[in-house]
Specification:
about 525 residues, 12-stranded mixed sheet, two-stranded antiparallel ribbon, globular, disordered N terminus
Length: about 525
């Protein structure tokens, strides 16, 4: 098949899209082609082009492996600029300011960067009045995955985790809820008021802290994190190209495996959820005998995670010598199901639902360097998918899930994800997408920038540089990459607030406490 150039492929996609518009009926114009209608159709085409550009991987230079990495990064920046609908220039320069600031202390400090050619007022105005095409940006981030995800012999692995943007004292900010926080406390409890964001990131199997964020959604207080995660998985599966192997999605212990499995029923995906060590599962009952009265048995032999006597022979077993973990033994018991109580309230079913899967036990000889003072514990996991689980992939995927925590630490620490004290949650959403795009640019710059290490830091290969080291040197790339943002046009001094006019007291919004 002949390969089309980006311009020809884009025009062909636009032609297919225009063909679906109801413009013609019986070879006659359905609407009168006035200048106003032509302008309107032109705006519709311009709004659709970014999505078509992202859907065509050749436009971003993804398929061809011999393209210059600088060109790949430049095309990503151009595609990212097209995803910015309103206040695009101010939003793009704000993202460049984050890339050159080193560490974000506050938004006004970003306006002092040389790449931010606009005033500090445009920064807040862009966050409040700007618009970002989040669907096109999701497709763009999904197209720039880790290189190891392109391997056809291994299914792609994604981790889903939640992080909280604490806004305890922001009484005028709507949409806040109470969430668990590992380091901040309120009245002696690890609970804070703020906004919760659920991230989806692709994982690699290299020994580094890099992840590839592909989606972020703000979970409202009245929503359930399991339902939101299932919707994120469905949207991601629709954006990914067709593969013979089902992707693996890894969750922490805070998620409900039964609810996730029911919501993802019929999807070509595997799920892996960590289990608490005090749970119990049941096998299917033996073939029931015909009895004149009584309901047939639903639960068979009990499988208690705490009681070894209830463990029968595993369905699959795997042993290996893991780097840093010593001898690793993984066992799986298939065909088990948990008891479901309050099925109508939790899962929306009229009766108790039976959800079958595999219980996986991971045992290691020791923990990696730096954690060897702690005794390793048993790791229990719940797996669901087609056939038997690949135990080598299962235990290594969950170990790599902790890279998401390193990524969140980078987003919050160096890139200042939760630094701005914005009032409205929509402003926080726009800032979140900007930070994710900034992190993706850092990942695409691996192998391009030179290492600027501190005297006490050890030398590392270019492909093994950490996100902090690449952020330290990214400013040297901007002169060669250029910027698609237009130069600012001075409009004179703002008149400011009229004399004698008061802003008034802002409306108060109490944080929503979700009933357990």
């Amino acid at each position: 098949m002949d390969t089309l150039c980006p311009r020809q492929s884009r025009h062909r996609c636009v032609g297919r899209w225009l063909h679906k518009l109801p413009l013609w009926v019986d070879d006659r114009p359905r609407v009168k082609l006035t200048p106003w209608n032509l302008w309107y159709f032109r705006r519709m085409i311009q709004a659709e082009l970014p999505r078509l550009r992202v859907e065509n991987p050749n436009h971003l230079g993804i398929v061809a492996g011999s393209i210059d990495p600088n060109e790949i990064l430049r095309k990503f920046r151009e595609a990212f600029y097209t995803c910015l609908r309103r206040r695009a220039d101010a939003l793009f320069e704000l993202s460049d300011a984050v890339l050159t600031a080193g560490s974000v202390h506050s938004p006004p400090h970003l306006s002092l960067e040389s790449v931010h050619r606009r005033g500090w007022g445009s920064l807040y105005s862009a966050l409040r009045h700007g618009r970002i095409d989040t669907e096109a940006l999701r497709c763009l981030l999904a197209s720039r995955l880790i290189a190891t995800e392109c391997r056809n012999d291994r299914p792609p692995v994604y981790a889903i985790d939640m992080s909280v943007w604490a806004r305890c004292d922001a009484e005028a900010s709507p949409g806040r809820g109470y969430y668990y926080h590992p380091s901040r406390h309120s009245a002696g409890q690890p609970i804070v008021a703020g906004w919760a964001y659920q991230l989806v990131a692709a994982l690699g199997f290299e020994r580094d802290s890099w992840v590839a964020p592909v989606d972020a959604v703000r979970v409202r207080p009245e929503e359930d994190a399991n339902d939101v995660a299932a919707e994120q998985v469905k949207r991601l599966l629709s954006r990914l190209p067709g593969r013979s192997t089902a992707p693996l999605f890894v969750f922490d212990a805070g998620y409900d495996p039964v609810r996730l499995q029911r919501n993802l029923e019929g999807q070509n995906a595997q799920i892996l959820v960590r289990l608490h060590s005090g749970r119990a599962f049941y096998a299917d009952p033996p073939t029931p005998e015909r009895r004149p009265v009584g309901r047939p048995s639903v639960h068979g032999e009990k499988f208690d995670l705490k009681d070894r006597k209830t463990w029968h022979e595993p369905s699959v077993e795997h042993s290996s010598e893991g780097t840093g973990y010593g001898k690793v033994r993984v066992r799986a018991w298939s065909g088990l199901h948990p008891k479901t109580r309050r099925a109508g309230e939790r899962y929306g079913s009229d009766s108790a639902c039976v959800v079958r899967g595999a219980v996986v036990l991971v045992e290691v000889e020791r923990l990696p360097r730096g954690e060897r003072r702690r005794k390793p514990k048993k790791l229990w996991l719940w797996w669901h998918g087609e056939g038997e689980p690949d135990l080598e992939l299962v235990w290594r995927s969950y170990v790599r899930r902790f890279d998401v925590e390193h990524g969140v630490k980078m987003l919050k620490g160096a890139l200042g994800w939760t630094i701005p004290r914005v009032r409205h949650p929509e402003q926080a959403d726009r800032w979140t997408w900007l930070v994710l795009a900034v992190y993706t640019q850092l990942r695409l710059a691996r192998g391009i920038v030179a290492d600027r290490r501190l005297p006490w830091e050890r030398p590392l290969p270019i492909q093994s540089l950490t996100p902090t080291r690449i952020l330290r040197s990214f400013a040297t790339l901007l002169p060669t990459l250029g910027t698609p943002a237009k130069e600012p046009k001075p409009r004179g001094r703002s008149p400011g607030r009229p004399k004698g006019r008061l802003s008034g007291r802002a409306k108060r919004y109490p944080a929503v406490k979700k009933a357990a």
